[in-house]
Design brief:
The protein is of the alpha/beta class and about 290 residues long. It contains 7 helices and 16 strands. A 7-stranded mixed β-sheet has the order 5-8-9-10-11-14-15, covered by helices on one side. About 50% of the residues are buried.
Length: about 290
């Protein structure tokens, strides 16, 4: 399986619409890949809090339209990163009705009008899944108070593997990833806008999630500086044994890697640690 992680630089001098078109062109250049992954909030910048409200869009808004077309043109599965999603007043505040929800959830707190929502498109340009970020960063400011929390874990079945979706700060919460594995995930995709000052955590946690869940981890971050916050870059692909298969540098880059999804099954057979779980074990899947 071939995956391309597009480590996009967010330049404050570039308009959101211009960036959409530029990124769509980069996606089209990945024709031949099976999966293309974009980072978190690449339209605005993950730390550009003041832009969330102004640039928020409905689920099927401008980014949806441009990315759906790019996925179809390239013939790839596209994790289009995340957008600041605006939900109309009175609309459903929890699931978004796409993908395969798993058990789990968040508090559902926040004003509910904005969500940090990831979109996944099929090679036909159809929406295959949407995931609203559960763990919002910022403690008592920023995303944590500006956006509502998602309430469902989401997996997406591809022909070669099942993806489990996570966004940035989610990486610090192993129970989310264990829930995705219980729902059948074999490849864990993390779309992020991770800061440079905590880059060592980014690498460590990506490898930890891969090892403890015996899964591939494909973690795509941003480059550049968001509202004065330098980004870590260093998108990374880790195999189920924790080996780093590929890692980007700090700047904008396309990181392409080939991997064998069957390694998840062989790893879990050779070292069946997941079978020895005693705490938080999910009921058998039917």
């Amino acid at each position: 399986m071939r995956a391309s992680l597009l480590q996009i630089a967010v330049d404050e001098g570039e308009s959101v619409d211009a960036r959409r078109q530029r990124v769509a062109s980069l996606v089209r250049q990945q024709a031949g890949a099976d999966l293309v992954i974009l980072p978190e909030l690449w339209t605005t910048g993950a730390f550009a809090y003041e832009s969330f409200g102004a640039e928020a869009e409905p689920l099927e808004g401008p980014t949806y339209e441009v990315m759906a077309k790019a996925a179809s043109d390239a013939g790839v599965w596209l994790h289009a990163g995340s957008i600041p999603e605006r939900v109309p007043s009175g609309a459903e505040q929890n699931g978004v009705g796409a993908g395969t929800p798993a058990s789990g959830g968040g508090s559902g707190t926040g004003d509910g009008s904005l969500y940090n929502t990831s979109l996944v498109f099929s090679p036909a340009g159809e929406l295959a899944a949407a995931y609203r970020k559960i763990h919002r960063f910022g403690f008592d400011k920023g995303e944590a108070v500006l956006m509502g929390a998602g309430s469902e874990l989401v997996t997406v079945r591809l022909p070669q593997t099942t993806l489990g979706l996570a966004t940035c700060y989610d990486l610090r919460f192993p129970e989310l990833f264990r829930g995705l594995v219980d729902a059948g995930a074999e490849t864990l995709v993390v779309s992020a806008g991770w800061p440079e000052r905590r880059r060592s955590h980014w690498t460590l946690l990506a490898q930890a999630r891969a090892v403890e869940d015996q899964s591939f981890v494909l973690a795509c971050g941003t480059a550049g500086t968001h509202a004065g916050v330098p980004q870590a870059g260093h998108s990374i692909v880790v195999d189920p044994w924790g080996e780093v298969l590929a890692e980007a540098g700090a700047g904008e880059e396309v990181l392409t890697v080939s991997f064998d999804p069957a390694k998840v099954g062989t790893t879990r057979e050779q070292f069946p640690a997941l079978k020895d779980r005693l705490l938080g074990v999910a009921p058998p899947r039917r």
